[in-house]
Design brief:
Elements lengths: L4 E4 L6 H10 L4 E2 L6 E4 L3 H13 L2 E6 L3 E6 L13 E4 L4 H14 L5 E6 L2 H4 L4 H10 L2 E5 L2 E8 L7 E3 L5 H11 L4 E6 L7 H8 L4 E3 L3 E6 L4 E2 L8 H13 L3 E9 L6 H9 L2 E6 L8 E7 L8 E2 L3 H4 L4 H9 L3 E5 L12 H11 L3 E5 L2 E6 L12 E3 L5 H12 L7 E3 L12 H7 L3
Parallel strand pairs: 1-15, 2-14, 6-7, 10-11, 18-19, 22-23
Antiparallel strand pairs: 3-5, 4-5, 7-9, 8-9, 11-13, 12-13, 15-17, 16-17, 19-21, 20-21
Helix pairs in contact: 1-2, 1-3, 1-7, 2-3, 3-6, 5-6, 8-11, 8-13, 11-12, 11-13, 12-13
The structure holds shikimate-3-phosphate.
The site of shikimate-3-phosphate (S3P) has 11 residues, from helix 6.
Length: 441
């Protein structure tokens, strides 16, 4: 644990919103008055998707610097490869990029011939892709996976039909893939989920003039539709803010301010859960105009944290925050439980296995369940000594690496912790280690 956590932290652009904005560049009508799309502090996933859309011909990258990524939208590409010379598009580590692009490309290939192959890095190539290929196929798209994984082959032309889709998991990535393909289908596409999921795609497309709506678990859109491209403000990533919200809540002397964070109600569950545990979090909305609400979050040390049980649809609302929520659970007095979170096993790593192992390295009492964990927490305030650090395995997963640092910084860990891979945090939060260093890590 470090002495004091007092700072204002500027966070990277929300990677869900930024990647959707980049993919839209290849789908819509160009408004000639519109300025280029500008994304502040882009993460590696955002950059990968920008390069992938550039490779498809849907945008031109004007400036790619650590603090800003500027692109000019080009609209639907004229050519998308041939059977003899497929267009190979690398999605890097980004599951959101690959799954949303699968839908977008399936839509583009409804009106023109072509052959696109979506590839990814080793971790992305191990993640399930049949779940996105199946609904696209049911619409009429030619989509082939490689034994259920990437590379994904998408071939056109095919005719897409508007259908009702009952998706097996409450995944915004799958929903968005179907919605983006649905832009090219005539009639009403309805997407029904078994639980709630983030609604950034619906908000963005509605902002760009598409007839689309979302009730709690059903998305309805009418095609064919061409989004009218125009830039919109992209908030800072609340899933990056999550690490500091937990750090400040658990640490005994903290006061952190996080400006311009996205406050979309489908992403703010961590604020409610931490408040329920006893956190002191204040939110000051900005008056920005655009599809996504945003504002400043201020978090101060909690006086006492009570344990919590997370299960059912709450797990989907917290899906990216669960590894760091485990750190807050470890700092609460008593038994906290996570259940119904099996999806965590197919994220960038098996996040149940790695979060449990990380907490054990921190000296926390934790047991692993097939779909979650049980943590016996205590409000320890360890003053970490200069003893040898315990090394934590991340399997290259950015959220495991950052949750590990927060376990150390906040005083939950009884020993210093270090991660086996620092570079991986760039996937969502490139400046994380310099921000952590400024706070004494
Ligand atoms: C995302 C949705 C979530 C989340 C991921 C980003 C998105 O995945 O874990 O980091 O941008 O739609 P699922 O929708 O597959 O749960």
């Amino acid at each position: 644990m470090q002495g004091r956590l007092h700072a204002t932290i500027t966070l990277p652009a929300d990677k869900s919103v930024a990647q959707r904005a980049l993919i839209a560049c290849a789908l819509g009508d160009i408004d000639h008055d519109s300025s280029p799309l500008s994304i502040a502090r882009p993460s590696a996933d955002v950059r990968s998707t920008a390069r992938a859309v550039e490779r498809l011909g849907g945008l031109q990258i004007e400036r790619d610097e650590p603090t800003v990524l500027d692109v000019t939208p080009l609209g639907p590409p004229a050519e998308l490869g041939t059977e003899e010379h497929p267009l190979q598009v690398d999605c890097g580590n980004s599951g959101t990029g690959m799954r949303l692009l699968a839908g977008a490309v399936a839509g583009l290939l409804a009106t023109r011939p072509g052959h696109v192959i979506l590839t990814g890095d080793e971790s992305l190539s191990a993640r399930p892709m049949e779940r996105v290929a199946a609904p696209l196929r049911s619409m009429g798209a030619y989509v082939r996976t490689t034994d259920g994984h990437a590379p994904l082959h998408i071939t056109g032309p095919h005719r897409l039909v508007a259908l009702d889709h009952h998706l097996p998991v409450p995944s915004a990535q799958l929903l968005s893939a179907v919605a983006l393909a649905g832009l090219a289908a005539s009639g009403t596409t309805r997407i029904l989920l078994p639980g709630p999921a983030r609604d950034h795609t619906e908000r963005m497309l509605a902002h760009l003039g598409v007839e689309i709506s979302r009730s709690e678990t059903t998305t309805t859109l009418t095609g064919p539709a061409l989004p009218r491209l125009r830039p919109f403000p992209i908030p800072a990533d609340i899933s990056a803010a999550a690490f500091w919200m937990v750090a400040a809540t658990v640490h005994p002397d903290a006061d952190l301010t996080l400006p311009h964070v996205g406050l979309n109600p489908t992403r703010t569950a961590l604020i409610s859960v931490l408040r329920e545990m006893g956190a002191r979090i204040e939110v000051y909305p900005d008056d920005t105009l655009g599809p996504e609400p945003m504002g400043t979050i201020r978090v101060r040390s909690a006086h006492e944290l009570t344990p919590i049980t997370i299960a059912g649809s709450d797990t989907a609302d917290l899906i990216d925050e669960l590894p760091v929520l485990a750190v807050a659970m470890a700092g609460a007095r008593g038994r906290s439980t996570l259940a119904d979170a099996g999806e965590l096993r197919v994220k960038e790593s098996d996040r149940i296995d790695l979060t449990v192992a990380m907490l054990r390295s921190a000296g926390v009492e934790v047991s692993e369940r097939e779909d979650g964990w049980v943590i016996d927490g205590s409000p320890r305030r360890h003053q970490v000594q200069a003893e040898a650090a315990h090394r934590v395995r991340t399997a290259g997963d950015h959220r495991i690496a950052m949750a590990t640092v927060i376990a150390d910084l906040s005083g939950v860990s009884e020993a210093p912790l270090e991660v086996d891979d620092r570079e991986c945090v760039a996937v969502s939060y490139p400046g994380f280690f310099s921000d952590a260093r400024a706070l004494g890590y």
